[in-house]
UniProtKB/TrEMBL annotation:
This is Aminotransferase. Belongs to the class-I pyridoxal-phosphate-dependent aminotransferase family. PANTHER family: ASPARTATE AMINOTRANSFERASE. InterPro entries: Aminotransferase_I/II_large, AspAT/PAT-like, NHTrfase_class1_PyrdxlP-BS, PyrdxlP-dep_Trfase, PyrdxlP-dep_Trfase_major, PyrdxlP-dep_Trfase_small.
Amino acid sequence: MPSISNKGQAMPESPIRKLVPYAEAAVKKGRKIYQLNIGQPDIKTPEKALDAVKHNNIEVLSYSHSAGFESYRNKLSKYYQNHNIDVSPDELIITTGGSEALLFTMGSICDAGDEVIIPEPFYANYNGFATSSGVKVVPVKSKIEDGFALPPISEFEKLITSKTKAILICNPGNPTGYLYTKEEIDQLAEIVKRHDLFIVADEVYREFAYDGAKHYSIMSVPGIEQNAIMIDSVSKRYSMCGARIGCLASKNKEVMATAMKFAQARLSPPTFAQIASEAALETTQEYFDEVIEEYTSRRNLLVEGLEKIDGVKVAKPKGAFYCIAELPVKDAEDFAKWLLESFELDNETVMVAPAAGFYSTPNTGLNQVRIAYVLKKENLLRAIEILKAALKEYKG
Ligand SMILES: Cc1ncc(COP(=O)(O)O)c(C=O)c1O
């Protein structure tokens, strides 16, 4: 039989999706599952975005410009100006989700064997994008005890080699929920400038900042215009994960010209979804105010509920809609499988994402899970109740 590539074999499984077969088997048994494992918001997509597609009389569903519709990039640039991010339409490439923006970025700035330093735990698919680009992820550990704040800059400094091309951060963080302060972003800016590195900031959760905290974008830092690359997406902002629209932004012309070659090779981002995303830019602040209020109360309820369970430790998230919880178990993956295979409370159970897959240091985060608070409050309460009962019964 013809053989599979080494790269293909090295591609990691998604820790978020790998328990799906267990969940499917549980559903077949008639079990109800509260899904805390995946960042699929239950928030309604803005009607304006849906209407723009529904009431469209396009006759030929054609390709668009490889960088995306000009009209969309013009409006998107204004959205960024309103967020104190100065990017012009030609400093933006519309991509098929933030995922493609990450792939284009790695392809544009790294050769095989190059290194990217990433605070861990991090969004697990960074491992996948790095593997498919031949890039080595170099983790720098952030700790639950510090709420997953930025590790000391001296820790980054120790990891920089002649192969290091970039530092990649996620702000606010998936899976940590940590929101970097202006001081932390400034420290990162200083180190990338000093070592002549790129700083890639995944800001797909920009709007989700709680308790009055303000998101500080990498693109707002003066003096690192040639180093900074921003990744963005409509997936979470407008609850439009299925649209598959994101973007890549940088003031570095060489980066943009290179990324554009990747963009041309895949022709264009999806047309209907760009129409929806352009219309979504008209979403009012009230929509976000309501969404933020909802997530804040879900977060409070979740954190309070988890803290009441014996042996559970949690870092209170300041943004996004995830948290990492440390559980009184040895092997959170085994526990997560057991929840789906062997446990039920009145025929209901919960699904969580084992956190080890969000670390690239082996044998780390083994007793942690990632919980996404994307369920309505009553369901979240029930899920916590189930988790508490399960932890009492589990003999792991
Ligand atoms: C941190 C982060 N970056 C990027 C993505 C990719 O998003 P998409 O490709 O849907 O824009 C996600 C999706 O969950 C994410 O959590």
